[in-house]
Amino acid sequence: MKIGEIIKQNPWWKHGKSFTGYDRHLSKVKKELIYFERRGFETSKENIYVIRGCRQTGKTTYLKKWVEKLVGNGFDSKLILYLSLDFFTSRKEMRSAINYFMDINREAESLYILLDELTSIKDWNLELKYLWDSGVTKRAVIVATGSSGAALRRKGELLPGRGLEGNEYYLKPLSFREFVLQTVDYMRNHVKTKEFYNALGHLKFNLEKVSINLKWNLNEILKVINTVIPFKKELEYLFRIYLVTGGFPGIINNHLRKKFAGEKELVDFTLAEMFVRNVLGDIVKQGRQEAFARQMLREIIEKYGTRYTFSKLARDIEISHATTIDYLELLKDSFILTILHAFDFNKQKPKFKGGKKIYFQDPFIFHALKSFLTGIDINEVITETLEDEESLSKIVEGIVNSHLVLTQETPVMRETPTFLWFYYNTSNREIDNIMKVDKSFLGIETKYKGRVKSRDILKIPQIKKYIVLSKEDIEFKGDTLVVPTETFLVLLTKSNHNL
Fold first, then answer.
1. Does residue 104 lie within any of the structural domains?
2. Which of 1, 181, 234, 341 could form a disulfide with 93, with the two C-beta atoms 3.0–4.6 Å apart?
């Protein structure tokens, strides 16, 4: 690795606090309509920290903002090393760059080493092992990011006792709550009426003070929901935008710029193309075939929101059962899909061999991949999806599912199959989500269409508490609470390991 390239990637060595004007990523952020803040976490030496998340969620910007904060707080800028490993070709180059940094800072007792897109390097886990075993972590905090969750997970398991335990985090698309809280101020400056302007301000003021915990009883949940119900129309407006952009910061900024400039186009198709290229590129990097991935994604879109077995999926795309599972696991670990298993209350465990439901982790992922696989312009895909009640209800069902995952998941120790499932009985009636909360079960049903009554859903003896997510209705009767979907979602908070 040429020294000039290392220096180029670390402009704070030369410019100190003023480096933000010379850094490509932070310069771009300054031009965006909104910079979306993410949660931080505490670090210490003798640990290695890993941030997992799909591309375009802002991992690089997160690291650069971390540098900005460190330097702004008086930390010596020359003691921070950032490496974008997309530009490296081997472990040898990576090790040489780190050794150079350690050599020029022999006397320093506190260093930061930030490794971006770590999974670009083959056998990266051996380099982290080397950094630990050689004593680098005694002087340096090491933070690594990666878009290939599959590679991070599988090879991360080969690093026991190297300070990784409990130090893995997710950086996923923004939740609806984050989207609302961080777009409201921009929206207020562009709405046309004073009433809407004031309502959005009051919504933010109230929302910052409240959230719900799914461990609570339904009375407590309803009490908090009633504090934001007066803003239902404003939340509907914001949710409609979220259905277009999902939680990807760049897509949100692009859409809002077009929306308030009066443009008819919803999003720039090049952003969708960039996302698709990244997804396919990561699949190929993991040694899989793009053609198989295309077939699988096409079938998942056609079957979206329905129940089917892995065997059925394998037959429909004419590949082996084992290959199907392999590709599904890869897409799941790469933050493209969520695989939901049915729950067997008799055996008190998931039915790993039964029917499954497969969702995309964000609505924009659905839009982008459907556009790519059908050849239809992404703006037409979005419009058609949002105007068709059945398609829209399935997209919302997927959003609810991904938000429920966000509330509890922790890398390795508490992943989706340990607390979230769905249920179906012998008559093929379903409950969309079964969630384990402490030692009890909560049933959550999404009915984003028409009128909804508490009696409309399947009930079983093992579940004592139900929440039905409607489009308009609100009702509380016995063991069932019916509430508008966007009102429920905006009150959900994320687990500590979701940034």
1. yes
2. 1
Predicted pLDDT of residue 373: 96
Q: How far is CA 439 from CA 342, 419, 435, 462, in A?
A: 18, 10, 10, 12
Our count of domains for the chain comes to 1
Q: Is residue 216 part of a domain?
A: no
Tokens of 230: 């007066």
Give the number of other CB atoms < 10 A from CB of residue 374. Answer: 12
Q: What is the rounded distance in angstroms from the CA atom of residue 94 to the CA atom of residue 123?
A: 11
State how far the alpha carbon of 148 is from the alpha carbons of 209, 256, 284, 372, in Å: 36, 29, 11, 21
- The answer to the question of residue 89 being in a domain is yes
Contacts of 285 (CB under 8 A, 6+ apart): 119, 120, 148
Residues 209-265 pLDDT 10s: 999 999 999 999 999 999 999 999 999 999 999 999 999 999 999 999 999 999 989
Residue 420 lies in a domain: no
Nearest C-alpha neighbor of 335 from the set 57, 29, 124, 139: 57
DSSP 33: S
Q: Residue 422: what are its φ and ψ, rounded to 5°?
A: -130, 180
Cβ–Cβ < 8 Å for 176, 490: yes
In 3D, which of 75, 73, 74, 80 has the Cα closest to residue 23? 80
Domain residues for 20? 3-170
Supply 407's token pair: 């509330």
Tokens of 396: 């919302």
Mean per-residue pLDDT for 429-440?
95
DSSP state of 174: P
